[in-house]
Structures are given as structure tokens and as C-alpha cells.
Design a protein that fits this description.
It is a single chain. By secondary structure, this protein is mostly helical. Helices cover 62% and strands 0% of the residues. It has 2 helices and no strands. The model has no long low-confidence stretch (mean pLDDT 66).
């Protein structure tokens, strides 16, 4: 990060002008987005737990 001041009306991030249009074309609602994120989180969580269990098994042998 650069330690530069952010002006009153100057946003640090900008969205693409067509982002809303594209999301509507893809029918990507916030409910659907939440489902996708929850699914990805649960998959990552499952992978992490499986990895820990495998490490425990290998260490015990």
C-alpha cells in the first residue's frame, strides 16, 4: 500500500461501468453470490480439515 491521502470525493477503488449490466445478464444476484461463496468456503474448510487429518495420520505412523 502507498501511504497517500485519499481525498474527500476520491474513492480508493473504482468499479467497472458495465459491472452491474454484466451481473444482470448473468443473473448473478446477491443470493446466488452468497451461495457460491458459501460453497467455496465449505470446500476450502473441508480441504483444510482433510489435510490436517492426513497429517495426523502420517505423524502417528
Amino acid at each position: 500500500f502507498i501511504n497517500a491521502p485519499i481525498g474527500h470525493n476520491n474513492l480508493s477503488t473504482k468499479s467497472h461501468p458495465k459491472a452491474c449490466y454484466i451481473s444482470r445478464l448473468l443473473d448473478f444476484t446477491s443470493k446466488k453470490l452468497n451461495e457460491v461463496l458459501d460453497s467455496e468456503y465449505s470446500q476450502a474448510y473441508d480441504y483444510e480439515n482433510t489435510s490436517k487429518k492426513m497429517n495426523q495420520i502420517l505423524e502417528s505412523e
